Amino acid sequence: MPKASTLAAVLYLGLSSLAALAFVGLATLKGEAWSARLIGGVWVFLLTAIILMPVVIPWVRKHAEGR
Amino acid sequence: MSRRLTLPIEGMSCASCVANVETALKGLAGVQEVRVNLATEQATVAYDPTRVTLQDLRKAVEEIGYGLRTATTYLRVTGMSCASCVENVRRALAELPGVVDVSVNLSTETARVDHLLGAVSVRELLTAVREVAYGAEEKLEGGAALDREQEARRREIHRQRRNLLVATPLALLVMLGTFQPYGVLSRLVPEFLHNKLLLFALTTPLVVGPGAQFFVHSFRGLRRGTTDMNLLYATGIGAAYLIAVVNTFWPASGFGGPQATFYEAAALLTWFILLGRYLEAVTRGRTSEAIRRLMRLQPRRARVLRDGQEVEVSVGEVVVGDVLVVRPGEQVPVDGLVVEGYSAVDQSMITGESIPVEKRPGDEVLGGTLNKTGSFTYRATRVGKETVLAQIIRLVEEAQTSKAPIQRLADLVAGRFIFWVHVLALATFLFWYFVGYDLWFSPQTRLMLTPYTLSDASAVGFAVLVSVAVLVISCPCAVGLATPAAMMAGTGKAAEYGILFKGADAVEAASKVQVVIFDKTGTLTKGSPSVTDVVAQGLSEGEVLRWAALAEKRSEHPLGEAIVRAAQERGLSPEDPEEFEALPGRGVAAWRSSRQVLLGNRTLMAEQGISLDGLAPGAEELEAQGKTAMFVVVDGHAVGVVAVADTLRETALVAVRELQAMGIRVAMLSGDNRRTAQAIAKQLGMDTVLAEVLPGDKAAEIQRLQAQGYRVAMVGDGINDAPALAQADVGIAMGAGTDVAKETGHVVLVKDDLLDVVAAIQVARATMGLVKQNLFWAFAYNTAAIPLAFGILYPFVHQIVSPELAAVLMATSSLSVTLNTQRMRGYVPPVRRRYRAAEVPGRPGTAAPVPSGS
Question: Which pLDDT belongs to residue B167?
Fold first, then answer.
């Protein structure tokens, strides 16, 4: 079983990547340049990771303790 | 989910106690298993921490009359800068098994941890704090604490000053270089400073040098799943810097074009935050000045007589019983009783009395006070943590570490703030990228208070800029500082006047008081009554007084002592009773040689069916004069009346008038009959009298007023009136003198001065006023600034908040809170401005004798 911190990292990084990909996808549909898509994607990834880390880490730790 | 914990239980003595504790704990939902051991006085509990907390377990045990053995550890926590930090530290400590309660104070940089005895070590507490990226060490006491604290503050101020010294010239050059083409700067500043590569070279060391602390701290916190305002700074500075780098090396990428490099945004943002940190480091030290001033009073050396020789030793080596020598101009090292010599001692630093107090053999002297004129020797009675000064420091520290209800709300809001700010920043970015830019973007777009136009800004560049402004402008540091800084200033100021608030909640409660109830004897009066009249019926006056003194000889009531003293002064030698019974609120009964003596009020007479026909008119006349009349009954026959009167305190009338002028209803609580009590109330101009109240019913009377919706303060003797003080919204224990820590009550007054009651409420009101002003500045700023940063005005003015303007606004908010709090330094309670201690005009209370017996 992976350690709680690794599991948490996989979760918040995965979810942040999904959010960034979703942004890139929508930006592509909007017809934006690649640089804008890339910068926007990175910014969305960063903000989403910052939002998710303090939520996901305690949640995973709590559930890991409960097992 | 299950957690197992061993609770040290207090008060178990038998098998039924074991069963009681087991039943109480098992009755809680979420408790899976309980084993109670009487021999070890422990209960081992397996429970689900998601359903039941340690607080619940403690409550269950306490509700059935037992207790949990707990200990309190104080930690000094460094590196906290906002309410989120406070919440991070609190949560890290509260999550440790065995921790019952945690209170973290940003201003004092202190964490108070109540934990089960032996369940958690100091090392574990320190590790928990360090793991969430803050510095921690155990808080020391006394001189060592002062040294350590001063050293730590010096280091922090030095560190922030060094950062600022590095950052200032760099930020100045970057700013001049950026704005070189504009206005007069084009003539004053050399053109090469505007070179983007030079600006990059100047900004980079600023961001990775003094600015690195924000990134390091944020990263450490994020790894543990915690966020604080450093993260806002880091994302703000980082984003501005990255945009500048992108615009320098890839100018066509759409972040405002080659003219908008934003190096000055990253540089000035870093500089403003560093300036804020430096000013905070300097001013935060000042707000805990009260504690430091008290700590500085603690003498370090003492002159002890050993084998007839004066030996100078460290004050820590003085033990109870040592005889010490104090010369003129020296500080008294520890508490004690004067053995020899005469002097005047300045006690103002502890009691607030402005006039030095004369000390003769047998008088008490307090450690930390200043000997003025003569020399004396004295015997140490209290040393170390037991001295009055140490107790006061502890009380003030505890008050400053505790949290007022209003602060808990502010912390809760601020604690969740960072999360929601990032959510808002993300929403802002997505909104402006997908919707706002296409709808409203204009090539005339400007950054507020900068010469830039963002004509070349792409949707992504524009949206990132706006979201960075939201991040920076939303910093909740002012919210986190608003309440604790004001509380520290207020409780510290109160301590200067000998007014000790036992917690921030006491300050809040005192500020809302609507009714002040004074106990009579010993509070409104001096509590040293004397016999004024003896009325005899069938016996001589001497006989009546002798019987009364016999009845009261074993009594410890001040009234009884007055009667015995009066008998002795008249040469009567009252015999000892063979049996004695105190009848609370009514009088006493005593027996000698098969004869019974009763001494008491009408209630007692009515209970015993004693006829007062011949004595009643005389007693009524005495009561109308405000004296306490007690009937003397020998073998069932009323034989006389003894009248006793006390003296009003000098400040009683002024205190009552001042309170009434503040819009507070003033009442008196007394065990005396209504007529007597009303006579005194009339002298003092009180409109409410609660008379004929038995000692045990005082709390009920207060409860009755509370049920009518009043917030009640009770002023009384900390020991005798303990239940009433505890029942009141604010219990004010007066004249604690040398035992401040043992007093019941939420507020302890060191002196016997009734004006301190007024001063306490005035300080509390001023402090809460300050709290509200600070919260206004903090919240109003956030409320107003966030929509501005979000770009709510953009469609109309085509200007957005620049990151550096956001930093200026954020710093202004923190500074306004800090500077507003500094106003408390010069605060003098209005009543103290009008009447200095012992300077009450006319001393209205001295002339009139008043009864005792409440």
Answer: 92
Q: State the nearest Cα–Cα gap between A2 and chain B, in angstroms.
A: 17
CA-based nearest distance A58→chain B, Å:
7
The residues, any chain, with a CB within 8 Å of residue B327's CB and separated by 6 or more, are B303, B371, B375
Task: Please report the DSSP string for B472-515 in residue order.
Answer: HHT--HHHHHHHHHHHHHHHHHHHHTTEEESSHHHHHHHHT--E
Q: Within an 8 Å CB–CB cutoff, is residue B460 touching chain A?
A: yes
Name the pTM for this structure: 0.64
Q: What is the ipTM of this complex?
A: 0.94
**A44 in reach of chain B (CB within 8 A):** yes
How many residues belong to chain B?
Answer: 854
A33–B254: do the CB atoms touch at under 8 Å?
Answer: yes
CA distance B214 to B222: 12
User: Any CB–CB contact under 8 A between B222 and chain A?
Assistant: yes
Residues of chain A found within 8 Å of residue B255, distances taken between Cβ atoms: 39
Average pLDDT taken over every residue of chain B: 81
Nearest to B159 by CA among B198, B213, B113: B213
The CA distance from B275 to B163, in Å, is 9
CA distance B526 to B169: 66
Rounded Cα distance between B132 and B148, Å, is 23
- Considering the candidates B519, B672, B729, B752, report the single residue annotated as catalytic: B519
User: What residues in A contact B231, CB-CB < 8 Å?
Assistant: 50
- 8 Å CB contact between B507 and B747: no
Distance CA B40, CA B211 (A): 54
CA distance A7 to B841: 75
Residues B475, B685: Cα–Cα separation, whole Å:
52
Nearest-angstrom CA–CA distance, B762 and B490:
10
Structure tokens at B123: 């090392």
| Nearest residue, CB atoms, B460 vs list A40, A57, A66 | A40
Contact B257, B247 (CB under 8 A): yes
In angstroms, what separates the C-alpha of A47 from chain B's closest C-alpha?
6
pLDDT in tens, B779-833: 777 778 888 889 898 988 888 887 667 767 776 777 788 788 888 888 899 988 8
User: Rounded to whole angstroms, how far apart are CA atoms B555 and B604?
Assistant: 17
Q: Which one of B239, B246, B419 has the shortest CB-CB distance to A51?
A: B419
Q: Name the minimum distance, in Å, from the CA of A1 to any CA of chain B.
A: 18
User: Closest residue of B to A4, CA-based?
Assistant: B224
pLDDT tens track for B488-536: 888 888 888 888 888 888 899 999 999 999 988 778 887 677 888 899 8
Write the DSSP string, A1-66. Answer: ---HHHHHHHHHHHHHHHHHHHHHHHHHHHT--HHHHHHHHHHHHHHHHHHHHHHHHHHHHHHHHH
Q: Is B101 a catalytic residue?
A: no
Decide the pairing of beta strands B446-447 and B628-634: unpaired
Q: Name the token pair of B395.
A: 């009380």
Rounded Cα distance between B288 and B106, Å, is 11
Place of tokens 């934990």: B115
